[in-house]
Amino acid sequence: MLVVNCMDITECSNELYEEVRHMVSEERRVKAERFHNLDDSKRCICADLLLRYGLYQKIGQVGDIDITYNEFGKPFIKNMKDFKYNITHSGKWVAIVYGNTDAGIDIERIQEGREEIADFCFSEEEKLFIYNKADKNEKIKQFTKLWTMKESYIKFLGTGFSTNLDSFSINALEGVITSNDGEVRKDIKVRSLQFDTDYYLSMCSMEDEFCIQSIKLDEIIKLLNMK
């Protein structure tokens, strides 16, 4: 079963941020400090904290995490074959999915101004799904849903945007992926749900079951202070 842990970064006050940024690796702290926007720094640190918390849930301990990357930048932990993970963030939310098998996850806030992207990188079937909605707000919501579904798939693949978004189509109702040459990916599926009213959260994996948990920052602080 896949586990999805989500954290609301609005719980991370500026004072708490000064505390928790010392609980992550030096590499992660340096990365966080490069951001000019404090919320970006908080998302960076909270993503690492969620990874550490997920490791504890999975194997019962947290030590040094040796992260490496594939040629497209997808991270994985060295010498840990049974812990696959993927991280996403948008607005106030940071989320991680983890399990024994590869997975991709994406979260996006529902907001207008991006729907025209569909004309360039969505399939005809996907565009119909969006533009057949009479209500403008519904079009924005369905665009966001499809966008997160497509992103979760390329994050599952671990290829990033080297896989063109218009090279495949996703049935937004069934989560089935079809490549442009007609091949149907029967081994994987994309699941999507409206999350916290104004976000969409999508996951792509071979697993049939998943659970979503909202993790409080103070839970993680207490755990890491015990280590």
UniProtKB/TrEMBL annotation:
Transferase among keywords: yes
Coiled-coil segments: none
Sequence intervals crossing the membrane: none
Name the UniProt record assigns to this protein: 4'-phosphopantetheinyl transferase superfamily protein
PANTHER family named among the record's database cross-references: L-AMINOADIPATE-SEMIALDEHYDE DEHYDROGENASE-PHOSPHOPANTETHEINYL TRANSFERASE, PHOSPHOPANTETHEINE TRANSFERASE
Keywords for this protein: Transferase
Species, as recorded: Clostridium boliviensis
Stretches assigned to the 4'-phosphopantetheinyl transferase domain: 104-175
GO molecular function terms listed in the Swiss-Prot or TrEMBL record: transferase activity
KW Ligase (keyword) present: no
Family: Belongs to the P-Pant transferase superfamily. Gsp/Sfp/HetI/AcpT family.
Superkingdom of origin: Bacteria
InterPro entries: 4-PPantetheinyl_Trfase_dom, 4-PPantetheinyl_Trfase_dom_sf, AASDHPPT_N, P-Pant_transferase_sf
The 4'-phosphopantetheinyl transferase N-terminal domain, residue ranges: 15-97
